[in-house]
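Review form for a predicted model. The reviewer records the input and the model, then writes brief findings.
Reviewer: anonymous (R2)
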Amino acid sequence: MKRVMYYLDIRTNLPAGGPDRDFSRELLKKGLRCRDGCGGIPTEHEGEPATVRYTWKPSLAIESATRAEGLMTPMWRAISRYLPNAVVGTFEWHRPDGVIVPVKQYVSVYVPVLDRVCLRGFRKYSICRQCGAVRCRDVNAKKYVLTGDLRDRRVAMTMSRGILVDKKMRDKLAAMKLRGLRFYPYEIRDEPLDGRPASLDDWPQLAKWRKKRSR
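Model under review:
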């Protein structure tokens, strides 16, 4: 029987909020957001709480942004114990009248890159030069996650800051009926299909970021 983890996604037919682009550009200028297009946090700033700021009032279970995911607090309470290394920050709404107000029904969440899992493919990957995040660039490839990368975790964050959960957690979240939430399965495999080492720690290109890693 095929083993899977479920990616937390949002139905695309629902209106979604939008990150504050001026705020995002400001973060880039200050060196608080990766320049390579991964949208992450440079290694030297990992561990600092991230603020997510939207120009629309959020309403969905997940509101994605650069640097961190915006999660409804009920969802975060359900999964938080399984992401012990997560860095939790705040969520803000930049209202049309220019006032910035906190949105207490949401938190921002990210996990340090070394604790994330990589969605693997068959050939092409990109590596962010600011944080070391690895992303599969195979067009239309059916991605998968490796057993060794998951390390028996029930909940994990991907390199692109998406969240994977096991079936038991998937069923729990589905029962909560969070607005817009849907689940996309990714197969769990024991060995990679890309001809590369199974552990990212063994990729020579990643030595700069992973040489200090300890398990």
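Findings: Helices lie at 21-29, 73-79, 147-150, 167-176, 207-210.
Further findings: The mean pLDDT is 92.
Recommendation: see findings above.
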